[in-house]
Design brief:
Elements: E1 2-3, E2 14-18, E3 20-21, E4 35-39, E5 42-49, E6 65-66, E7 73-77, E8 90-95, E9 101-110, E10 113-118, E11 121-126, E12 130-132, E13 145-147, E14 152-158, E15 161-171, E16 175-186, E17 192-195, E18 198-201, E19 216-220, E20 227-229, E21 232-236, E22 240-243, E23 247-270, E24 279-281, E25 283-290, E26 298-306, E27 309-312, E28 316-318, E29 326-333, E30 337-346, E31 353-363, E32 369-376, E33 380-384, E34 389-393, E35 396-403, E36 408-418
């Protein structure tokens, strides 16, 4: 690998920089197709660049890599910040994500934020979250240009194209549908036609923010499972997509339905004998199903299907989602099972001791409910009197039972606890 020699001309709009060139032994064959890997914070573009034509996307110059040995120096012309051209001018901007808009004077541009003065006050906003009305988008560097002295294959990163995963679990009485969608954003000033792009996936901690529906169109690909290779996760799309400028496009990648293996209401109490009175038990419904295909980890929105209506639930985290793997998700707090654990007596407040406890649980629903209760003792459990209870570890007892509709179940048991 060799370095091209270049010059950095400061104080001018025109910049010449040196770029690594790659030996001809690994140069890819030239192709008219633009290969796109869309990431969640921009995209990696590989295309055959012509010296007399503009690139398909506006590149980040520092990411620009010629894959042909004869392209060692490129030049770039752009303004420092595309919002700067609107300084001290009246503009009308609207949010990409909410029904929020402002009409006023742009009084400051600072990195990724802008300040608008309106109605005697001012507000500072994230620039990337807003469009300018009339342009239907945030301004872009339309005067920006990459000048390449020779034709050849290049790769670069662009901020104009990105995607966000939209992951959803839809629960029915006996099934769960795993729906994976992609919200692809084209923030550039040109429409784009993408042939078989890749989506590079990284798990995230929160579901995708809902976009304003007026700017979302819907497409569908044939069922696409994620590919795991070299510790990278990609969706390899097979269709061709047309993305108008300044739009967000929702693509359904995969929609698979699996039978639910089990629904269990899981509760736990740390039973310290110095506490008097009944201890309330909070049960959480845990749903288990088995993935037949490769999926992705991350935070999933949940919907519950009830009589052809869909009720939104709480988001759930799936930490591992490989083929043929069992998945346990805590889907909601149970409002059907209500229980308490009460200390009846103990031979001593210190250990060793023999403790008598009473567990009471009622099923308030009109269907059968499975429960799994864990009693966490304050020492090592040596024995337990009831055959319904199982010592699960040194200091825990596990209790499983299926409750009939409206059944109240009470069990009293004795445990021997030591240090």
């Amino acid at each position: 690998m060799s370095h091209g020699n270049g010059t950095l001309l400061r104080g001018k709009k025109k910049t010449l920089i040196a770029i690594f060139s790659i030996g001809t032994s690994i140069i890819a064959h030239a192709s008219n197709q633009t290969n796109v890997v869309i990431g969640q914070n921009g995209s990696q573009i590989t295309e055959y660049a012509h010296s007399a034509q503009a690139l398909s996307f506006t590149p980040n110059l520092h990411s620009f890599i010629p894959l042909s040995a004869n392209n060692t120096v490129v030049s770039h012309e752009t303004s420092t910040n595309p919002w700067s051209r609107y300084l001290n001018k009246r503009i009308h901007i609207t949010s990409k994500y909410r029904d929020l808009s402002f009409k006023g004077t742009l009084i400051s541009v600072n990195g990724h934020s802008i300040t608008i003065q309106y109605s005697g006050t001012s507000v500072t906003l994230p620039a990337n979250d807003f469009y300018i009305m009339g342009n239907k988008a945030a301004p872009d560097a339309t005067s920006s240009a990459i000048h390449i002295p020779n034709d050849g294959l290049v790769t670069y990163h662009t901020d104009e194209l990105s995607w966000k995963p939209a992951l959803t679990l839809v629960f029915d009485e006996n099934d769960v549908s795993v729906i994976q969608q992609a919200l692809i954003s084209n923030t550039g000033s040109k429409p784009q036609s993408l042939k078989a792009p890749y989506l590079n996936y990284r798990p995230q901690g929160a579901p995708v923010m809902e976009m304003k529906s007026a700017r979302v169109s819907a497409m569908a690909d044939t069922s696409v499972a994620p590919t795991y290779q070299e510790n990278q996760i990609t969706y390899r799309l097979t269709e061709q997509y047309y993305l108008p400028a300044y739009t967000d496009t929702m693509i359904t990648l995969k929609n698979e339905t699996y039978p639910i293996d089990s629904k269990v209401n899981v509760g736990s109490v740390y039973a310290y004998p110095n506490q008097s009175g009944p201890r309330p038990i909070t049960f959480n419904q845990t749903t288990t199903f088995t993935l037949k295909d490769e999926s992705v980890s991350g935070t999933y929105k949940t919907l519950w299907r009830q009589n052809e209506r869909y009720v939104a639930g709480q988001p759930v985290m799936i930490r591992s989602a490989r083929s043929n793997q069992k998945v346990d998700v805590v889907t909601s707090k149970s409002y059907d099972l209500i229980g308490t654990l009460k200390l009846i007596n103990t031979t001593s407040r210190k250990l060793p001791a023999s403790q008598t406890w009473e567990l009471e649980v009622k099923n308030y629903s009109d269907i059968r409910q499975r429960m799994e209760f864990t009693h966490q003792a304050n020492g090592i459990i040596r024995s337990v009197s009831s055959s319904h209870l199982k010592i699960n570890s040194n200091n825990t007892i596990l209790f499983n039972r299926e409750l009939a509709p409206n059944e109240k179940y009470i069990v009293r048991y004795q445990i021997s606890v030591t240090e």
